[in-house]
Specification:
By secondary structure, the chain is mainly α. It has helices at 2-28, 49-69. The N and C termini lie far apart (77 Å). The protein contains two helices and no strands.
Length: 79
């Protein structure tokens, strides 16, 4: 009898985890736009994922360089 109740509890817990995992996976899906035919030009102002990635990398690089160039105040030695 205990074994049966334990097994039912385990199955209920497993079903709950499966439902929650399915909801999480559904929430993380991203709609991927359909690719334009190879002969068609891209619309003006639209950029590819690769171009966007390069822009973000460049922005991060510039921010890091700016932060590294800023002078940090040196603590005074107290002796």
């Amino acid at each position: 009898m205990r074994f049966g109740i334990g097994l039912v509890g385990l199955l209920v817990a497993l079903a709950l985890v499966a439902v929650l995992a399915k909801q999480q996976l559904r929430a993380t899906r991203v709609q991927v736009p359909t690719a334009a035919p190879s002969g068609a030009p891209a619309p003006v102002g639209a950029s590819t994922v690769r171009e966007q990635s390069r822009q973000v990398q460049e922005q991060v690089r510039q921010q890091v360089e700016t932060l590294m160039q800023q002078a940090r105040p040196m603590p005074e030695d107290e002796q």
